[in-house]
Amino acid sequence: MSMVTERPSPTLVPGPVPVPARRDPRAVVRAYVALTKPRIIELLLVTTVPAMMLAAGGIPPVSTMVVVLVGGTLAAGAANALNCYIDRDIDQLMRRTKRRPLPTHALSPRSVLVFGLVLAVVSVGLMAGFTNWLAAGLTAAAIAYYDLVYTLWLKRTTPQNTFWGGACGAAPVLIGWAAVTGGLSPLAWALFAVVFFWQMPHFYALAITYKDDYARAGIPMLPVVRSATRVNREIVLFTWLTVAASLAAWPLGLGPLYGVTALVSGVAFLVEAYRLVGRSKAGEPLKPMRLFHWSITYLTIVSLAVALDALL
User: Fold this and answer.
1) Closest to 68 in 3D by CA, of 224, 173, 202
2) What would the pLDDT profile of 244-280 be if each residue is shown by its tens digit?
3) In angstroms, rounded to a whole number, what is the distance separating the alpha carbons of residues 83 and 36?
4) Are 253 and 187 in contact (CB under 8 A)?
5) Of these four, 41, 55, 76, 254, which has the most CB atoms within 10 Å of its CB?
């Protein structure tokens, strides 16, 4: 089934040629900013900065910090803009995404594609010019994997898309670490694992909330194509793995402040996951967004603990 992605041409009638109304420049700017999905970028930076601080054993060089923050913001914005370009056919079918710039025709597909590619080139160029080739290579790989592997292929073909696409969301931890040290240590990979596993309960909660949206668009998210029992099992499994990864990072170079914080916040995360499962088994309203929002709080608390540990 083909989708209409452009406005149909108006019927020609005799009379004066109408002058197209000028678009408000501020609205255009807002549309381009919306393409980058700023809220997602904020969450990515929450994990990047503490990783850099830990890698540096304190505050990293200001120049490195600025380049990584700017380059990381542009890279995430590029990946998100290209995601909007690729997903423009399904975004117009989903309640959650139908107000994005392409479904509303605020921007043209060509403009969005060019915008995303320019951001990608600039971001990788910044990382290559002012940090090192490992950080730049990881940045380029994360953009390519998210858009070409996850968005274009995995998202539309397998219910395990969230798992296999999880490397993209966790990549900023490795990028920040590599930018500071030029390499990757076991502790960097442990922090990567925390964010990687965390994405499953975080996103499954969102997918449960918008299950009908994904079904309408033909996207095989796990809650759409698998039973509630299977979804519950994976939420609990990956919440445990998230907490386990956070505790595994403790003896690799983190102190007691981090360890206690990871343990206490991890228990709270597990409690919220089991509450969702319990409501599901009892046939009660699921309230999945409670787990979604708590997962963000959990990741923020653990990341703050990493940053404070680096300063002590």
Assistant:
1) 173
2) 999 999 999 999 999 999 999 999 999 999 999 999 9
3) 9
4) yes
5) 76
Taking only the tens place, the pLDDT of each residue in 182-238 is: 999 999 999 999 999 999 999 999 999 999 999 999 999 999 999 999 999 999 999
Contact call for residues 99 and 58 (beta carbons, < 8 A): no
Residue 288: exposed, middle, or buried by beta-carbon count in 10 A (0-12, 13-18, 19+)? buried
Instruction: Specify whether the CB–CB gap between 234 and 222 falls below 8 A.
Output: yes
Q: Which of 180, 206, 174, 179 is nearest to 47 (CA)?
A: 174
Pair of tokens at residue 270: 């597990």
∠ CA(127), CA(129), CA(132), 5° rounding? 60
Predicted TM-score (pTM) above 0.85: yes
For residue 124 the two structure tokens come to 């990788």
What is 138-196 written as a DSSP string?
Answer: HHHHHHHIIIIIIIIIIHHH-TTHHHHTHHHHHHHHHHHHHHHHSS--HHHHHHHHHHH
Question: CA separation (Å) from 114 to 108, 110, 123?
Answer: 10, 6, 14
- Both tokens of residue 278? 């319990």
For residues 161 and 221, is the Cβ–Cβ distance under 8 A? yes
Closest CA to 292 of 197, 183, 209: 209
Those residues with Cβ within 8 angstroms of residue 250's Cβ, 6 or more apart along the chain or in another chain:
258, 259, 262
- Report the largest interatomic distance among the alpha carbons of the chain, rounded to a whole angstrom: 79
What six digits make up the tokens of 265? 């916040």
The three-state secondary structure class of 1 is coil
d(C-alpha 97, C-alpha 151), whole Å:
15
